[in-house]
């Protein structure tokens, strides 16, 4: 459930921004969302391991800034799993929301705010179900 909520909190504003921006900015935002699809899940997961391990860049930066005295345990626990799963599943939240939002004419974004909100929330509820199912599938396969 944490992964689904994180994907929703991060994904909805990104989809909204991409839907409201004009070219080439909308393409740039979507490229940042789609680029991870071109990389293997195994490579992305390993990259998170490298970044979040005790001697990784995140712990080195925190120690260099004086935020922590000793390295934090950021991988092989719930935090590391959530970070990696959000990274993998975020495009599955952003892209359908973006597709739905681009169907709404720009003139209706401000004039009919309630209609848009209800439309977006209906689609959003469906996406929460799909994203939660994908997150559940990943966590079940992780425990095997």
Topology:
Blueprint: H1 2-20, H2 25-34, H3 41-52, H4 57-64, H5 78-102, H6 107-111, H7 113-143
Describe the structure.
The protein contains seven helices and no strands. By secondary structure, the protein is mostly helical. It has one domain (2-143). Helix 3 (41-52) packs across helix 5. The radius of gyration is 18 Å and the shape is elongated.
Secondary-structure-based class equals: mainly alpha
The domain count comes to 1
Q: What share of residues are in beta strands?
A: under 5%
End-to-end C-alpha gap? 19 Å
Residue-averaged pLDDT:
79
Estimated helix fraction: over 70%
Overall strand count: 0
Number of helices: 7
Quaternary: single chain
Largest sheet: none
Radius of gyration: 18 Å
Q: What's the SSE pattern?
A: HHHHHHH
- Which overall shape is indicated by the principal axes computed on the Cα atoms? elongated
- Give the uncertain stretches in residue-range form: none
Descriptive terms for the model:
144 residues; mainly alpha; 7 helices
Outline of this structure?
The protein is mainly alpha-helical and 144 residues long.
């Amino acid at each position: 459930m944490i992964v689904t909520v994180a994907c929703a909190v991060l994904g909805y504003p990104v989809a909204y921004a991409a839907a409201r921006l004009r070219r080439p900015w909308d393409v740039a935002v979507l490229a940042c969302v789609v680029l991870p699809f071109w990389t293997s899940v195994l490579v992305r997961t390993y990259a998170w391991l490298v970044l979040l391990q005790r001697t990784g860049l995140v712990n080195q930066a925190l120690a260099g800034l004086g935020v922590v005295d000793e390295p934090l345990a950021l991988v092989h626990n719930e935090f590391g799993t959530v970070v990696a799963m959000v990274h993998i599943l975020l495009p599955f939240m952003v892209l359908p929301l973006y597709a739905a939002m681009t169907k709404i004419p720009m003139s209706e974004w401000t004039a009919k705010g309630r209609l848009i909100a209800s439309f977006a929330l209906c689609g959003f509820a469906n996406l929460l179900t799909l994203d939660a199912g994908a997150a559940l599938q990943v966590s079940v396969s992780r425990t095997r």
